[in-house]
What does this fold into?
Amino acid sequence: MTDTTTEARLTHPPAAKAEMLVRRPVTEVFAAFVDPAITSKFWFTKGSGRLEPGARVRWEWEMFGVSADVDVLEVEPDRRILVSWPGEHGPTTIEWRFTPLEDGTFVSIVNSGFGGDANQMVGEAIGSTEGFTLVLAGLKAFLEHGVRLNLVGDRFPAGLEN
It folds into this structure.
């Protein structure tokens, strides 16, 4: 007889991954993530500074009363960004990769290093995938069309239970 209460076992740690083509030059797409004056137009509402190696910056989502301290581990201009930020069960890493293409820039975001039990890690990876997909869609709308969709703010409207 199988014990259905046994915790799920993972064969490899889960990671969140979101990717999208943004039809803008790589320098412009890269700048949108390192410069909080741009990032605040499609993701968080306020950032304390640019992403530079060794920096610690604070990102704020004022509509939710939430902030995160982000440690910048590596920055390769127009190619890659690696940061560490707080996860639900300890810090996780986020890696952005920027690949220039003839018709724009392919952006890949991977969030990994989730903690907790198997179910908690999978839950965090799923939530992070959803979040970074919204971030990329907002980035695309803003850079390609100048439209601020407010996707992150509208994901959790006031008055609804999560």
